[in-house]
Amino acid sequence: MSPSFDATSNEPKPLSDTLGRGLVDLRISVTDRCNFRCQYCMPKEVFGPDFAFLPHEDLLTFEEITRLASVFARAGVKKLRVTGGEPLLRRDLEQLIAMLAGIEGIEDIALTTNGSLLTPKRAKQLKDAGLHRVTVSLDSLRDEVFMAMNDVRFPVSKVLSAINAAQLAGLSPVKINMVVKRGVNDEDVIEMAKHFRGTGHIIRFIEYMDVGNSNGWRMNDVVSASEILEKIHQRWPLHAIAPRRPGEVATRYLYDDGQGEIGVIASVTRAFCGSCTRARLSPEGQLFTCLFSGHGHDFRERLRRGESDEQLYDFITGIWRSRNDRYSELRTEATGRRKKVEMSHIGG
Ligand code: SAM
Ligand code: SF4
Ligand code: SF4
Q: Domain named Radical SAM core: which ranges (predicted)?
């Protein structure tokens, strides 16, 4: 490896991009497939029976993912998040978690899932393999609303069971992701807050984003974090608290009455590009330096033609040093129409 050195101190210079942001988090999407068709992510009209998902041989193997993750760890990555598509569709995911858990320098491994396959047994296997935490997505507590949103008639009760399973397995605190879309589930914010208050779970309200080019995003469909917070604050007063660490995507709040924590992820109305330390690896080994990128950098080809760790390290650091992404700070309805990678391909 060839880290650059600070001429005055002889210490390796921490890797940083053109806007001074380090590389701390790696999100690994392990599949582009999903058993849900959430309308804001994989609308059926686009992801129908004829959609060409990646063939299995195009996916990075667990060995390839682990090798890359270990080179990323040497470049500064400390946190991994396994995502998708639906990551639990990938067979033997526990094995991958165990392999990732063995990488020196990795301090935290999390998983984002729709919960549909997170049984008590699977949750325990994941925990035993070295997974620290899970985020489970749930957009409403009302079956008619949730089923319309996931568009495969998946019931709320099974996701609630998955959240329980995660907690019992010690994958806690469990985070719950709720994407709020105007006219679809904005009426459900209070019920969701009420349900998870006092449980130790942390619900995060996410502004609906213009990821990819499939969901027909319009600014009018976005419910702002301020609006969400105001609604909750009127019922149960809240106060803001400091981020757990720099670069955290959610802004954190505590209920004044001690009933726990919530978060908002305000990518649209309060862009947080300035502290974005996240890189994203797609299932077929493309590295994306922004959730809204139009293209990635191919690592699979380099892995399969036998590049050394040193060469991969140099490729990673070269990409990072020239990174200048700040899509959310520049967003307009027009940027929304640019070609962008799909959320279901690259993960949240
Ligand atoms: N399938 C898993 C799940 O749903 O948790 C993991 C992948 S999913 C792409 C990751 C997260 O992205 C989910 O919490 C999902 O709700 C969120 N998401 C998907 N499309 C979104 C959009 N257009 N705006 C905001 N969040 C979105
Ligand atoms: Fe699947 Fe997650 Fe996208 Fe819903 S949000 S379609 S569960 S990948
Ligand atoms: Fe990071 Fe891109 Fe999101 Fe900005 S828009 S926070 S650079 S992923």
A: 18-239
